[in-house]
Amino acid sequence: MSDSRNTPSTLEVALGSRSYPIHIGPGLLGDPQWLSPHLAGRQVMVVTNETVAPLYLARLRQGLGDDLEVRELVLPDGEATKALASVERIWDALLAAGFNRRCTLIALGGGVIGDMVGFAAACYQRGVAFVQVPTTLLAQVDSSVGGKTGVNHPRGKNMIGAFWQPRAVLVDTDTLATLPPRELSAGLAEVVKYGLIRDADFLAWLEAEMPALRGLDAAALTRAIERSCSLKAEIVAEDETEQGVRALLNLGHTFGHAIEAHQGYGNWLHGEAVGTGMLMAAELSARLGWLSDAEVARTRAIIAAAGLPLAAPASMGVEDFLAIMRLDKKNLDSRLRLILLRTLGEACIHDATPTETLTALLEAFPRR
Amino acid sequence: MSDSRNTPSTLEVALGSRSYPIHIGPGLLGDPQWLSPHLAGRQVMVVTNETVAPLYLARLRQGLGDDLEVRELVLPDGEATKALASVERIWDALLAAGFNRRCTLIALGGGVIGDMVGFAAACYQRGVAFVQVPTTLLAQVDSSVGGKTGVNHPRGKNMIGAFWQPRAVLVDTDTLATLPPRELSAGLAEVVKYGLIRDADFLAWLEAEMPALRGLDAAALTRAIERSCSLKAEIVAEDETEQGVRALLNLGHTFGHAIEAHQGYGNWLHGEAVGTGMLMAAELSARLGWLSDAEVARTRAIIAAAGLPLAAPASMGVEDFLAIMRLDKKNLDSRLRLILLRTLGEACIHDATPTETLTALLEAFPRR
Q1: Which mean pLDDT values do the consecutive 10-residue runs of chain B (368 residues) have?
Q2: Which CATH number fits domain A9-178: 3.30.460.90, 3.40.50.1970, 3.40.50.620, 3.40.980.10?
Q3: What dihedral do alpha carbons A46, A47, A53, A57 form, nearest 10°?
Q4: Quick one: which of A318, B130, B254, B354 has the fewest CB in 10 Å?
Q5: Which one is catalytic: A38, A198, A257, A350?
């Protein structure tokens, strides 16, 4: 397993005593040198789902040494699994196995698995080690970086959770070979987001390379993941608990969460809703006089090129959006707080959007 | 409300950006100057229980300003309430009220309320502010200081939780007037613990003042609470997440948790189990050659003077203790890790107790 492909890029997320590495590259999953250094003790529980288990669980087990007490827990796939009841299953399994505070949880799967397992680790015996092994592009560029963990509540997404950092993140780019195209597009939404909020050069590179990315070109994917993780790591290092600049990562998310909440979690993929939400944010930014029509057109074009929806659900009226957005946890003391674009490559936090401007955007935005 | 009694002592728990004050004194509960500075925003939820609500909820409401959105949640009393289901009730109430990330939870009650509300705050929208208003001696000297929050699991005490610091702790010594004598003794167990593990002078002072403490002498209680919080604050500041010295605070707790778990939580009070557990730890320390018979006798005498049990439950055999203690979360990688006494006023972490020595102690220790 130690062939010559096996020299990953490594980013360090700088968080003082909670700093951790992100290894990115092909062939990492079955190679013991990447997992072993990050285990807290001998007790290891791998948590994955029914889709990922047959594809990658055996290979991950190869990457664990022999002198370990390894348990596996396979949960159902899908956003509906991202609930407190699943976290309780993890805790029950840990206690049934007699696992102590020096155990390590490994999250093998997409963002749902990563968020849930991270939260289970954050609260098991007041916090144990965990390692993220994200197998979707979305998880690789977003939810495996930054320490946000949690589950959904019937009244809202990610309402219950904790900030809890992994010991390490292993991004094995080989796992993207089995990713459905729709999920690849959902991951690309977050990649495009990094360009829109912070890096105009990266955005231009993405405009050129989008066909290669959708065609699973390994070099292009590796560079896109690296740059995305690097931009997110910079932001997270500046603002670990989302008091300031980190909020910019939520571009498109307030609109997107409203779509997900209204449609029922899992019917729209998170990245799809964020893609449409970013276009809504861009159009609102134009109504506030910040983006030109040409910049909105570029935004629409790259979201389309990524294979993402350009219209909101036909069943969602203006009031549906407003009611859900007002509950969003990013709204402090009932002021609607949105992430908008000053220009392409520069986002801002805005809590003074006139209601009539927002309403006009919500009325005019296409439905399908 | 601002009479001359109202000049509390204030300790600062030094934890960098998470530092917080502990105000101790009479008459704090109804005085707005103590609560108001610690609220994160306008949304406030007071969580208490059915015993405490009729006694102190109205007085606490007086201590909240008028310009707030205040909700109340009254839970059943008792250790059985300290479960994930209760935390879910808090989260449901917060979401039903539309409370956002800038809300504040106030825990009004004993250790169960404090631990649960702290955990609810730790995980609501990945962490919101909370203030502890402990109304039992145990909570005042122990569970309101140090940021340990959590709930019990059917397989073990405090298995699910988080480290989460309050914004402030308000100890109104007037609330002890309504505390049942048995609960006062349970709180004194933790007070005695601080003397045993770290402060021989304080232990000697307690030997002299125990009758005054049990007679609710206000000055003696205030001094005992201050010194206990101060000792605990010192230890927590040295070791926030229990990697080292903080473990010393668990003197008597591994034995005590075994008693509580075997008897069913709530049948023995936590402090009662810790009292008996400290005597077991002292006797084991003597068997290891560290304490003299006279020191064990002093330990037994002060535990008795505090009104605490000197014998373990008749129904608990040696194997019952061993089986539960091995699951205790303080045991790393299956080594039994105990807090013992080198001398009175100095505790140590010991993970090399010979099984036969422990077994002999468990066989010889009195039952009732």
Answers
A1: 58 87 89 91 97 97 90 93 97 96 96 96 98 96 86 92 96 92 96 97 98 88 92 85 83 94 84 97 97 98 98 96 78 74 96 93 96
A2: 3.40.50.1970
A3: -10
A4: B354
A5: A257
